[in-house]
Amino acid sequence: MRCNWANSSKEMQQYHDAEWGKPNHDETYFFEMLTLEGAQAGLSWSTIINRRATYRLAYDNFDIDKVAHYTDAKRAILLQDKGIIRNRLKVDSSISNAKIIEEMHQNGEKFSDYIWNFVDNKPIINHYSDMNEMPAQTDLSQRISKDMKKRGFRFVGPTIIYSFLQAVGVINDHLDSCDFK
Prior knowledge:
The structure is a single chain. This protein is mainly α. It has helices spanning 10-18, 27-40, 45-49, 52-58, 64-68, 72-80, 88-106, 111-116, 139-151, 158-167, and strands at 124-125, 171-172. The chain is globular, with a radius of gyration of 16 Å. The termini are close together.
């Protein structure tokens, strides 16, 4: 048994089974999920998951330092890449978010630690029997969103951040009936 949303494609099943809701602390993965969740705004998650391999190629495997130093020429290439969402604001936010994370690293702070500190390094495991019970945002995602915006992050509204927290395993929202909880 899986959460119903994961049954639409092999890629969605793989993401659900191996990643979604699983605690992670990897900086590259955190940046990848932040970028993909921002790209997803206004679209379906399956649209993004189906383009994930192309995103990894386009964004140098989400190497934070490389993305933080993208030139205007590289930005122009991204905006022409039909394999990703070619929204100027989303592309620009991914580059500026990488710069903020790089600056955090230079100051001895890990982006993943910053996020995990909001929950005292303990994942939140929710117990839902139906996907309709799951919120789009919570007080936690609102608080993190607000703090991230103060730091200069973009495309980090509370709904995007809630999905991001699920993606990196800070929140586990697998249904109680799901075998992957």
